[in-house]
Protein 1
Amino acid sequence: MKGRIPPKLPGWIIRRLSVYEDMFAVTSDLEEEYIYLYGEKGKFRSGMWYWKQTFRILSSYFFNSITWKIFMLNNYLKIALRNIKNNKSYSFLNIFCLTLGIACCTIIMIWMENELSFDSYHKNSDQLYRVTNNWGWVTPQPLASELKNNYPEIVNSSRFITRGGRLIKYEDKKFYEDNFVLSDPELFQMLDFYFTKDKPDEIFRNINDIILTESMSKKYFGNADPVGKVLNIDNKYDFIVTGVLKDFSQNTMIKGDFFISFEFIKYYDAHVKPDDWGYNSYNTLIQVQKNALVTEIGKKLSALSKLHFPDSNNDYIMQNIRDLRLYDIKGKRTGMNNIYIFSALAFLVLLMACINFMYLSTAGSFKRAKEICMRKTVGAKKTELLVQFLGESFLLSLFAFVSALFIVKLSLPLFSELAGINMTFDLVNIRLISGLFGIILFTALLSGSYPALYLSSFQPVSILKGTANIFSKHKLSRRLLVLSQFSLSTLLVICLAVIYLQLDFMKNRDLGYNSRNVIFFRMKGGLNKRYKSFKNELKQNPVFFSITAASSRTGADTHFGTRGWSINGKEPEKDNVITGLKVDSDYFNTMGMKIVLGNDFKNLPQNTAVNSVVLNETAVKTVGINSPVGKRFTFWNRDYTIAGIVKDYNYDSLHESIIPVVIVFAPEECRSVVVRITGEKDISEALAFLKSKWEEYVPGFPFEYYFLDESVENMYGTEKKTITLLSYFTFLIISISSLGLFGLSLFTVSQRTKEIGIRKVLGATVFKISGLLTTEFVMLMLMSYFIAWPSAYFIMNRWLLNFAYKTDIGTTIYVLSSCATLFIALAAVSYHTVKAARANPVNSLKYE
Amino acid sequence: MIELTKNEELILLSIWKLKDNAYGVTVRQNYKSITGKELNYGSMYNTLYLLVRRGFVVNNESDPEAKKGGRRKILYTLTPEGIRALKEAQKIQKLAWDNIPDLSIEES
């Protein structure tokens, strides 16, 4: 007998799947016969026999069981559909809420898929890094070649820069183009740019080669082949088209409409030497070796920065191009935060819908108690019932999913506009499909699990006897579910209110200047050289209150920040950056800024003014002297006299606190004209006049102007978008919770019909009965505040940290928001309760 | 009328014949000795499963025997319904074969 051990695996499979093993002890039968066969036919053939029999057993077993399962499934499906049909309002409620939840999740998923896939389509995307300074995205020109030539880990590099506002002309077509990129040819090796036809043999062989995109080619050349044609740029340079790129997919950060050689920068930035390490204005993209240690390269970059700037805390940082969209240069989450917030909110909407499903199906379970008990008595196992109910919730989720797809299809254009990207919904993306499938499965499991466990645990004896009160069982868990919904709704309303208040606060805050009726525009086509006569012509027209010019929009240009300054010849103790701004004489009264001490430029004679500066209050604090007016101030390697002090003004959004600014009188170096118009009614006239003068001075250049108040509001675009989206989500969550409450109140009331009837007969008023029925909900609501208020306080405090200037949040906002949600909840509950309270007791007591 | 397939009938007969020693291996041997064909385990267990469900057969665990090295062994016995089903099958068989002309004549 020794050695006649049968193969272990088939026995293990049979035991594992418990195929008839409990009933017939399959393996021992097989083993007995195997041992017999072993003696007769040898090891190999008996082994074969063993395997063959195992296979036969398994296949026939599964075939058999599947036939039976299909019979059962058919029955389940029939009952499920019948249930949906018999409880129309309840099924509709459930499916409707689930639809909203699933649609919400689907839209957010499409959006997320789009955001997260930025620049990941490049073949080498994991090796591509943008190098930036630690204070901004710009780098000096020589960095790229230095990195490529002297660092073996860096295999390729390219400089590039986008220069907006180029006037491009072909025959009679001329437009301003903003996506005009200068780059080294290496950029085309590192990134995956797709040419429509043949790639040019050599990119940018000549300095006047230009590559444009397909849609630009259509715009200028129609359907003709653009290769070899000549484009004129800025009325100065002629470029020959050498290639056409396919239009860029929207999910890339590095794109352009026109590409020319970076060598051309010597015409644009003639004052910058190509080996100047101090002039940071350009982008640098590098490609590192496969599997290179990024942290090691980062250390070497820091060393390089130390080499060129030994005394400053300047540093070069690398950022993978896939992270450009969602993180800032220091790796802080910017867009990524939104991804987290909105996916969490979408998930919460779905969760609310699932919670509705949970408590509505448990509350409505008394209707199905008989069916469940019948199944149990006939011999259904608990697992079979579990499968049945999970299957039902799966079926409902499926229905909801199908209708959600319609909603998604219809509402996607709206959300595309809101998100500012073009979202498309096509079921070709594997990740998206699996995500959607995950949503359905998740919804079915989450919403179905609790009711399934609850329903399948019914005790047939007590229910069929009629002693058990199913409805009042599990009351606690139902209450907890409602409580969670209440808390979330209140929390969201409070958050919404706080964000709204903060936005309102920022809009109405005194910025230190008057942004109404102010227009600004950039001087183009050499207008800055004729600015003086331009200004004088405008002055003739009384609609203009004042005309001035500045080097930037609202009074601080971070490009002109410097650490090199001194006061009265003394070097500062601390290494502080002071930012410079160049203005024309009427700047302060045009902007409506207040001079708190000393003189305005316009009160000074021209030759004194050019040697004078005005400091803002923060700059005075930074400089650290008591009576600054009249002191010598050295800035940009020039000596100035401090003429006056301007009241602090918020040049940027209120996220930032005010920075020290030095304002210099230099009308020739200004690039933007700023105009204050006398009154609101004069705006159209002023614009018409400006336009005609513009045509006169720089014909052929389009006139593009901005209102200052609009551009100030645009600084809060992100917050506005957040508040819009958040209000959508809040609306959804509150309506879903209200619908759930509406359904739940129906069940509560229908359980107590008789009680209400008896109370009414005994003399209770409608008001009293309504009160009785709603007390439970009101209590839950009040309890929910204990959860909602602290969490709202915590979350909103964190959010307000983003702002240098914040509104005060009093307790009123909490109380008001809570009252609002309470009111909504009461409205949802009152329909059924009032109806029940007003019903004639005869009707409810008639039947016994 | 209780319907039995040929396989069911033969398995029930085998169990009846084997009395106290009816289990997987012996039932299969008996089947082979009657029909001359191998009955594979797959269809045997499936048939047995249905017979148990219909209440014709009960399966009982026997005491571990030395022969099987202490392994489990499950014995089958017929229930009264099983016996009735067999009787009925026998009756139908008899009725069907009654008054049938001799087959051997036709064959030649």
Protein 2
Amino acid sequence: MGVWKRIESIDRRVIFVVLIAGVLLPMIFPINFPVAVTPEVQSVYNRMESLKPGDVILLACEYDPSLKAEMEPMTNSLMRHAYKRGAKVLATCLFVTGTKLIEQELKAISDEMGKKYGEDYVYLGYQPYPAIVINAMGQDFRNPFPKDYYHNDTDSLPMMKGIKNYGSLKFVMTVNATSGADYWLQYGREPYQFPLGFAVAAVMATDYYSQLQTKQIFGMIGGMKGAAEYEALTNLKGDATRIMNIQSVVHIVIVGFILIGNVAFLLSGGRLKLGGRA
Amino acid sequence: MTLESLTGIVGVWLAALLTLAIFSFLFKDNPLYKFAEHLVVGVSAGYTAVALYTSSVRSLILDPLAKDFQEGGPFSSLDRFEQLLLHVTPAVLGLMMWARVSPKAAWVGRLPLALFLGVASGLNIPTYLQTYVVQPLRATLLPIVPASWQTWLSTTFAGHALVSLGHVFGFDAPVASTSTLQALNNLVIVGGTFCAIVYFFFSVEHKGAAGKTANVGIWVLMIGFGATFGFTVMSRVSLLVGRFEFLMNVWLQDNLLKLLHRG
């Protein structure tokens, strides 16, 4: 068996070991890569910058602990930026296994920024059937959420005075790693025509570039790269910037593997027919 | 050591050991991996059941009913009775769904299901068409001729005829100031969309011009799949890095090393 054939049939565990080394080495010896800001992330930043003290935004966070690593930096950056602008945050989590995680994240950032529950932020929590909940919130937040996450009467919270539905908000930003992003577009933005922004898991990002083009969403933060861009814009270098630097090294390793695999395929006698069949 | 810090430490150790159990699948399938996998399913199901009970059954049905009875009961006024109906009707419909477990009473479950399907269709059809068909279609109506060419074209006979035809149909929009680069970008969008749609048009055999257009459509789709693959890799690598950050920084550095130093 030739060298290239042997490379083609390499044990997958060798690839895993190299990938793990690609993660661990930049973690131990940090490298800094430049971050170029894309227009879709800039647009989210500009929208957030336009907030005035007292404005209220809805942050709809829909992800669970399995996606924490990718999504948490986005939630943290957006909340910090909103608070920095003096805005108030109304939050929901329409993904059942994420409700506690989102509560912890909201509390941690709010405590860090010295914000008080009920006055500067409110967490409505979860109700089933996101499509119907999103639609019902367009009439009144109290319809699906007569009580908040902590079982307080929604009306008893000072921040909720004067907040009736989407019309009372400056915009809605969803940090989403579920099909809930589609629900926000279809059952929220479409019937009620409020400004909607996305911060989505990278795996979903390509699906929503068409919605950026149609201006159904005003901006999008896509995955860790988007989160790192947002951190660069806000000058708050945090988790996303650090993880993105490590991730860039892993990307180089993966691109290397793809190149080696293709070269091995071609040099070991493989021929590619037009139409994609070998 | 407080109870809170102790539960924190136990939680970190559990999370770390379960992460390693899941990673062990990379070597080969094993009982540790199976245990961790089943644990995820069980914990998620249990957590979901409790969350559904507290957020829906308790918040939307039990608590309002209890409050109502404490404040004079549902029959004390018409308004109260209306509230009772609002709270009880969904609960009854929900209970009717459970009738499907018995084959004899299964028909009872069809009533709430029919209502649910009707509401879902009514909500879904118009909003879906508007969100995913009409709006994206509108976004492909883009100027593909640069402004300088548009001015020149309007002086030619064909251009003049087109402008006149536009006036007849009420398209009186001024000439769009499209740069050459923007026009080229728009051409890629319009052409790419057209070719990809032709690929999915099976009423005509993919031969000749239709075949060549469909082939371009395949390339457009492949580029789309490539971009999606790239983003998927990025997403999964983020999670991998996140887990290693937890193992290295939270488990090893903050817990294990501190414990060893103390020892």
Protein 3
Amino acid sequence: MSKARFLCLKIPDLEMQLVYRRLGYTESVSHPLFIVEEDRPSTRVIALNSAAASLGIRVGMRYTAALSLSAEVQASVISPEERRLVTEEIRDLLLRFLPGAEVWALQRSVFWGDIRGMDRLGAESRRLYQRISNALKREHWYGGIAIGWTRPGTLFGAYALSIRAASSQSTHIRSFSSEREEKRWYLSQPIDPLPFNGRDRDRFSLLGISRVDEFVALPPESLKSRFSQKALDLYRFLKGNTATVPVQQTEQKSVIQPVLQRYEPPIRDTEVLFSACTQLLSRVIADVQGAGLWIRRICFEMTDDRRVTQTEELNCGGLTRDLAYIQRLLKLRIEHVSWVSREIEAITLSVSVDTPLTRQGYLPSLEEPGKDRFDIDRMERAIALVRAQLGNEAVFLMRSRSGRVPEQRFQIELSHKSIYTPIDSDHDNSEPLGPLLSRVRRLLEPPIASKKYIVLYSLVFRYTQTGAWWNTERSERVYAYLEGRDGVVRWVYRSELPITYTHQGILS
Amino acid sequence: MIDSVFRASDLLSTDSPSQQRSASELCWDAVSIISRSVTVISGHASTSVSCAVLRQFQIATPHPIPWVVLGGTLPYLPDLISLGINTDSILWIKAPTKRDVLDTVDTLLGHGAFPFLCADLSDLTGIEASYFSRFMHRCRQWNTTVLFVVLTPAGYTPSPAIRFHIDVESRDRSALLLKVRRSFLSLADGVCDVKSPFPLS
């Protein structure tokens, strides 16, 4: 497979451009105008033009408060559905020229195009990008287009060009000459264009973090605890392996229609219910295979004679078409669930499908076979069986958070979608001993003066104990068992102020 | 190396405070437990001891750890954090009955997806020895460690069948029955061997 190449398109002020197109404007207007999502007094301003900003209107202000600032100001409503349709329209426009295109989930005005192999066109490739620019112009869009090797690099390139595009109201194109130059350039860029929320921006400015290289140098633990999930997603995007994930080739759509089957006489037995569900499953799996898709979730809706519906959802724990495996999940659920209705008259089976290609987009880098015993597919399947037996809510993650009363200090998250994303995506699994080695290095800085020590490579255990434990003056010591290459385990501790290392003994 | 030094009899504690073993020795015990296949910890502060083992495992590897809890009672989260456990990497599984706990452990072990499992049990009575022999077999198959935490408030009530199976019949030191009659860890701010006041629902 050829190396990933990306085209990134950023449409500046997407909502404003949409309103101008709708109102018949093709040029920027001097009339103050702002946009809200709904025609309700309490809704918030989501975008505005410079004339409205000069009146004191800001993003996030309430609809009524913004209207009260001036009699001349106009408001326009753009629903989320309308925004979604527009982004799909632009993505389809890119798909007319490129084999793959997608909308960035973190910012809906950014689009990625797959341009692998386009370099072979030579000068023709530049003409192709110009044709994309012309097509955008015909549809009354303008923006910045950057061509490069990585997603972050092209993203910041498109950000920079979109500013120029907004002032000139025409599309600008830039191509990076080398991957190295691209990386060096985007790491020195400011983080302002990234879609952080206001609180995160304030904290970054308080910490003095303004550039991309400073942002990606932050430890992920502190990001998790101090910043929002979106900041963490952006951090993963900039630092993770998404730079090499190919653009989605086709839009993922559920082409498998739900199947409804009525039963006369009604089903009164779990054995009959199981065989009826299996028959429906066989039909659906045949459709799924024919469409080249894979099943992720299955939902059974069982309606009884009193029109009461009981819904049972099975998470397959990964993508599958294996009827025997799904039957096992189904059997576990049927055996363990308590049935509200005794007579089931109809069963509706609907499946959530996916393409295997999109799976690469969200899997963390730890899924590298042969590197470690941690197999994410096996884990997901095991958890899926447990969920089928005990119910979907039986498996969860628990987090602590700040709160006054004890009940508010917890956050329980059901792990329906992915149970691994919050766990380990920041961990570099390519070197299992990496974190341990880094701890050892920190522990032993500066190095022990004694020449008797050999180079240590693994930390067996470490803990901190106060001086009261051994009835001396209070001091902090870090104890460690360190195993050397000769197989001998040594017991050492480090005392603070001044930092000294003491050899306690050799363990056998 | 560890197996040759620590045997099950070495790990038994006494009721006398003068013979209380130091925390450093306990941590070595934690290392030895990880190297075993199936470990049952019962008695006072069994959760505290299991947390020490859990922490030891988390230091060694970044893998997520499933903890099968019995009923709706969860360990008190701030206590776990104060003991140095990374709670983000723990996957909680709520099983309503003791039988469900064992079935869940069996399912998780069968897939070999997790190198370390932790499960709560109300008591050890009424559990067939075949369960544990099956667990030990699967642990060896996948190189997995299972830690059962018996949540009895006091005392030590092992099943004679299990003790017979582990200690006498098989003479297999890959399984370990650890009796802990008193807490080795600080009970001031790290107590988590009592049932949590925080219910799930």
